[in-house]
Design brief:
heterodimer; A: mainly alpha; 3 helices; 0% strand; B: mainly alpha; globular
Chain lengths: 101, 270
């Protein structure tokens, strides 16, 4: 692995203009990928968690309708949370960039 | 490609359009193989052979590239460095910054192992992505899962790690509502989607390739079916190219998400 760092320090691409931009692109790609799959995971987790709670309560009180109701409630909670968490992050980053449109 | 067509032909059993037999559609039976050899209750099959071969290929290539590194690198060393730097600059550093260098050996191994395993679906004779058997995916997911949980508990403490999952500055009833969602997402859904995504893409890709290969053979006859056979053959080449992209992309996504999960374990995210 030592030679990798040697090449990195001596390589012609080290001070190439635009490298910082490429790094930012790669970082935003990683962030976007993570955010996308997080949102997907929240939607599934919300439906599953509250679907399970609804199913358990429904089983106890003999009301099978509570299972789909729980899933819908879970989905609504997930959507709300996703908007709160990631929608807010977008606004904050725009403010930090000094975007005054 | 000739090998692919030969296997497809064998799979279709000489069945052609208007010959009295139906389309021999590929299915789950194409993912089961006869054992090459058996030791007690353990059956060594083709997917396992491919998995072992891929380990040998990745280890051998990187060992040969870096066993005696030179200041002016040779061809193999250059290739190895290119691979390592690509993973470092496109996956490790963007997600982890300079701390990512510590996890580079893991990320490089994961990326190239998954990529070579996926590529095996396109190489004649092998023609099977072992990752389309979900049992080959779970051990990789288990390694990543145990690692990021360990790092999270080590760096943030047990309570801190759990507490940092929740957003700051929201009313306390919201926390109670979010507890089941956040716990399920973090401990179950996140590793589950990491594994299923890779498995499902490889499974679907192999099935798609098989369908068009068998269809080409099935439609090839001196009838109007020949026209459709040509179309199906063209689709084989198209899907082949598409799968090449998917193989690379899936290795990239798996490794990038691993890096992101490690990053979230090293510091709190809000």
């Amino acid at each position: 692995m030592a030679t990798v760092s040697t090449r990195d320090q001596q390589g012609p691409g080290r001070d190439k203009p635009g490298r910082g931009e490429r790094d930012v692109d790669a970082a935003s790609r990683a962030l976007g990928l993570s955010t996308g799959w997080n949102v997907f995971s929240y939607l599934i987790a919300g439906m599953l968690a509250y679907g399970l709670i609804g199913w358990l309560i429904g089983r106890a009180v003999h009301v099978s309708l509570l299972f789909p109701v729980g899933m819908i409630v879970g989905l609504a909670i997930s959507v709300g949370y996703v908007i709160y968490r990631y929608g807010r992050a977008e606004q904050v980053s725009e403010t930090e960039r000094g975007d005054d449109r | 490609m000739t090998g692919d067509v030969a296997v497809a032909a064998a799979g279709s059993g000489g069945c052609h359009l208007f010959s009295g037999c139906g389309f021999p559609a590929p299915g789950l039976q194409d993912f089961n193989f006869k054992p090459i050899f058996t030791i007690g209750a353990f059956h060594f099959t083709k997917p396992e052979l491919i998995a072992v071969l891929c380990v040998i290929i990745v280890v051998a290539v990187f060992w040969a590239a870096f066993v005696s590194p030179k200041i002016v690198p040779g061809k193999l060393q250059s290739l190895g460095e290119l691979g390592v730097l690509a993973v470092r600059d496109q996956i490790a550093r963007p997600a982890l910054g300079r701390r990512g260098d510590k996890y580079l050996p893991l990320l490089v191994s994961l990326f190239f192992y998954i990529f070579i395993m996926n590529l095996m679906e396109l190489i004649p004779f092998f023609q099977f992505p072992s990752m389309s058997r979900i049992g080959f995916v779970w051990p990789l997911v288990a390694v990543v899962y145990v690692l990021y949980l360990y790092l999270g508990f080590k760096n943030q403490g047990a309570w801190g790690y759990i507490a940092n999952m929740w957003p700051r500055g929201v009313p306390w009833p919201v926390y109670i509502i979010l507890i089941p969602v956040e716990l399920l997402r973090f401990f179950i859904i996140q590793p589950f989607t990491l594994g299923v995504r890779l498995f499902a893409n490889m499974f679907a890709g192999h099935l798609l390739l098989s369908i068009f290969m068998i269809a080409t053979w099935y439609l090839a006859s001196f009838t109007i079916g020949l026209l459709f056979a040509v179309g199906s053959a063209a689709m084989v080449f198209f899907v082949f190219g598409l799968e090449l992209l998917v193989d690379l992309l899936q290795a990239f996504i798996f490794t990038t998400l691993t890096a992101v999960y490690i990053a979230s374990s090293l510091e709190a995210q809000h």
